[in-house]
């Protein structure tokens, strides 16, 4: 395996400068071909070598490339991160798709993306057989005025009624990132995904529950201009009455208070469900899919710098409520 990683680095290292060149918006044909050649081999290596799987998941924790003490794998993590910055509109979307490919081999697959879309220039790296990106509607996020070029195959669907979509694409891969926190009936959505997929199919879902992590779990909806840092921790987890009391104690006027609360709760109620990490874990593991793996991103020590605030917020929640999970990733399989 070490020989494989060394040959991978030899193949791709000549293109690092090209990746870092911000002035050039495109990649050379040589770079694209070399990258596709490497991508073609990775699923086989991942399947055959348990040590490779362990090292890969360590350097791409929850689908996010990171630098570790594994210097050989660091090169692959850096290369994928640079490639994502170069070719993708959303970097994290590309790195998650890369991990899905390594785990299941996307070559020739019919892939349905729920809650996003990518250009053909991106999906070509994975040699998909068919691809369709989707926005979600009806009880979920409403995407207004979406501009879609000829380079996209894009539809707007209701993931909770996805069976109506079968005529467009019957997928053997479903891929979704940062979407299922907007789906209000996750159980129904998962069941519908299961029913429309072919047999021997995989689903890869990355989601960030809003009402789980006390630190960074509000998705930017808590007003950072008017609420000090010491109170932002867990503010979105508190009952509305307590939120109002905290704003009042800050000396914020009633008019400004109404504005802050309106912005916070209208945005959350319209675009975000109120599901916790525990709900998602149950929904994923109890669905008809076989749950191959479930990974979490946690901020395990966030409360250490604000222990008093953490204990205060905890009083308003169920005692066993997990306040550390920022995101989770699940790989599902249909026989």
Describe this structure in words.
The chain has 335 residues and is α/β, with parallel strands linked by helices. The chain folds into 3 domains: 2-87, no CATH class; 104-208 and 288-299 and 320-334, 3-Layer(aba) Sandwich (Rossmann fold); 209-287 and 300-319, no CATH class. The chain has helices at 2-12, 16-20, 29-48, 50-59, 71-87, 91-104, 120-123, 186-196, 229-232, 240-249, 254-271, 277-286, 307-314, and strands at residues 60-61, 64-65, 110-114, 130-136, 154-157, 173-177, 201-207, 290-298, 325-334. It starts with a helix and ends with a strand.
Brief account:
With 335 residues, this protein is of the alpha/beta class. The protein contains 13 helices and 9 strands.
Query: First CA to last CA: what distance?
Result: 30 Å
Total of domains: 3
Strand content: 15-25%
Q: What is the H/E order?
A: HHHHEEHHEHEEEHEHHHHEHE
Low-confidence stretches: 138-154
Structural class, from secondary structure content? alpha/beta
Query: Mean of residue pLDDT?
Result: 85
> What is the CATH architecture annotation of the largest domain?
3-Layer(aba) Sandwich
Strand order of the largest sheet: 5-4-3-6-7-9-8
* Proportion of residues in helical segments: 40-55%
CATH fold-type name of the largest domain: Rossmann fold
The CATH class of the largest domain is: Alpha Beta
Largest sheet: 7 strands, mixed
């Amino acid at each position: 395996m070490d020989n494989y990683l060394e040959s991978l680095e030899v193949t791709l290292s000549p293109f690092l400068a090209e990746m870092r060149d911000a002035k050039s918006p495109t990649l050379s044909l040589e770079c694209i071909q070399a990258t596709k050649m490497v991508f073609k081999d990775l699923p086989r290596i991942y399947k055959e070598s348990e040590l490779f799987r362990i090292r890969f998941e360590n350097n791409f924790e929850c689908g996010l490339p990171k630098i570790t003490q594994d210097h050989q794998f660091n090169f692959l993590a850096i290369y994928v991160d640079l490639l994502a910055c170069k070719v993708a509109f959303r970097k994290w979307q590309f790195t998650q798709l890369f991990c899905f490919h390594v785990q299941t081999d996307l070559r020739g697959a019919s892939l349905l993306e729920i809650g996003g879309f990518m250009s053909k220039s991106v999906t070509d790296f994975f040699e998909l057989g068919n691809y369709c990106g989707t926005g979600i509607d009806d009880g979920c996020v409403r995407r207004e005025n979406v501009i879609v070029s000829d380079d996209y195959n894009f539809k707007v669907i209701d993931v909770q009624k996805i069976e109506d979509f079968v005529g467009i694409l019957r997928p053997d891969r479903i891929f979704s990132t940062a979407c299922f926190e907007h789906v209000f009936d996750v159980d129904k959505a998962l069941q519908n995904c299961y029913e429309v997929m072919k047999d021997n199919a995989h689903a890869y879902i990355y989601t960030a529950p809003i009402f789980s992590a006390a630190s960074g779990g509000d998705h930017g909806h808590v007003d950072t201009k008017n609420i000090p840092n010491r109170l932002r921790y867990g503010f979105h987890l508190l009952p509305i009455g307590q939120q109002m009391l905290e704003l009042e104690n800050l000396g914020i006027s009633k008019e400004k208070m109404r504005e802050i609360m309106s912005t916070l709760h209208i945005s959350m109620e319209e675009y975000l469900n109120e599901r916790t990490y525990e709900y998602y874990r149950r929904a994923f593991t109890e669905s008809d899919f076989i749950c191959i793996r479930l990974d979490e991103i946690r901020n395990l020590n966030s409360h250490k710098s604000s222990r008093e605030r953490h204990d205060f917020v905890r009083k308003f929640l169920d005692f066993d409520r997990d306040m550390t999970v920022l995101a989770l990733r699940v790989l599902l399989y249909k026989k």
